[in-house]
Amino acid sequence: MPARVITHTKSKTLKQFTQVRDFTPAPKVTLKDVNQHVVAAQYAVRGLIPMKAEELREKLTSDPDSLPFESIINANIGNPQQLQQPPLSFYREVLSILQNPKLLETDLYANDVKERAQKLLNAAQSVGAYSHSQGIAYVRHSVAHFIQKRDNGVFADPSNIFLTTGASDAVKAVLEVLLTGEKDNGVLIPIPQYPLYTAALALKNATPIPYYLKEEQQWSTDIEHIDELVKSAKSFGITPKILVVINPGNPTGAVLTREAIREIIEVAAQNGLVIIADEVYQENIFDGEFFSFKSVLAELQNEHAEKFENVQLASLHSTSKGVSGECGQRGGYMELVGFNSEIKQLFLKLASISLCPVVTGQALVELMVNPPKEGDESYERDQAERKAIHDSYKSKAEAMYEAFSELENIEVQKPQGAMYLFPRIILNDVVKEVAESHGLKPDEFYCLRLLEETGICVVPGSGFGQVEGTFHVRTTFLPPGEEWIKHWATFHKEFMHKYAEI
């Protein structure tokens, strides 16, 4: 029996679709209707000054002669490949095969490149397929091997490793599992700190407990200060639950000593604080030595097992930093140390809700922790590329430190690692008054003028936290060349002269 065809006249169809019920339209969602924790969250790295930088960039595009500079220098964020750092060849060649497996049939790449790509394809099946929510098992085993080698044989269990979409998602996962959403949940964060932490705590309705680093002592940690803060927080009804440590430091560039790490772990053990060890800059060491929190915890447990057996640690790493610089690929991992199995199951449940981390990011984690070895075809090239990037970081850091050290009204600590300097700018009452008249904080005013006159975009220290009455800026030293540093020095001298006290 043929299907019945229903037809309508054109006028009837239009009439059906043009008639609506009679009602008063409801208003749109406004700020007062939404999650106020989102409204309250601040993230200075992409805040007022970077937004102004994008506005000026668009202006330069439409009218190249409209500003007193030719381009915007993005020194506000550790984004290496935006600033002309080349990607590591081994990474990209393996990734290209993962995206297009037919390249395995060609002679374009060295055998070790194709072998690694094949192993990853065997493990993942395809970068277009979901993986296990905790991450590809092959990659997690590679991470465990890397950790054991880094920490001189301290055992790493692949089942305790979670691959993540960048280290930021690992931070969010720890906070999601451990914080209850109540205001009495306290989290100790270093000041200055990476703004992700204060923003994430605002979203979780938790109370940040800032502990100030000692600037005059290379941004070192004051354990007595932390002890006092824990006691004080408890007296106000706040329960400290987590202690955040960033090592090497962002924005300070400082590297913690083994003894400092031991003291921090002692405080955590005594007060039941879960440690978040943000160790994403562990490859960026110019002065001193990197000690992982896990390795130092293992030392303490060997010496005093009964005192440190309950310490819980979440250690984070990322493909965005180091010499990898693959920020946009979003690869990272988190190792959970000392957590009970039922708590680890909560982390797995949380990971399952998002299905899986980005699979190409997982592949990059494997390449980061398992680079070509001596004897591999790609080894010498890979080593040369890594050395060039690391040496470039070190020389740029030294050049910027020396330039700042020669300027009046700037105090700066020598960077030991990471990608940043956090110089203190001495600003007088004239600057403070002018800034206030513009509705700005003094360090914001300085950064805005620097941007508008030179095109250099940096972040005010107030976005990271600083001792009251002091003013800083965070700058990365990643932009190519040193000419921009000279332009900054010229601006600084002119700024200080213009706003000199009468």
From TrEMBL:
- The answer to whether UniProt assigns keyword Cell membrane to this entry is no
Which residues belong to any copy of the Aminotransferase class I/classII large domain? 109-477
Q: Needs which cofactor?
A: pyridoxal 5'-phosphate
InterPro entries in the record, alphabetically? ALAT1/2-like, Aminotransferase_I/II_large, PyrdxlP-dep_Trfase, PyrdxlP-dep_Trfase_major, PyrdxlP-dep_Trfase_small
Could you tell me the superkingdom of the organism this chain comes from? Eukaryota
**GO term, biological process aspect, one:** L-alanine catabolic process
Q: Does the keyword Transferase apply?
A: yes
Keywords annotated in UniProt: Aminotransferase, Pyridoxal phosphate, Transferase
The Gene Ontology terms for molecular function here are: pyridoxal phosphate binding; transaminase activity
Family that this chain belongs to: Belongs to the class-I pyridoxal-phosphate-dependent aminotransferase family. Alanine aminotransferase subfamily.
Q: How does it assemble?
A: Homodimer.
Query: In its UniProt entry, what is this protein called?
Result: PLP-dependent transferase
The taxonomy runs: Eukaryota, Fungi, Dikarya, Ascomycota, Saccharomycotina
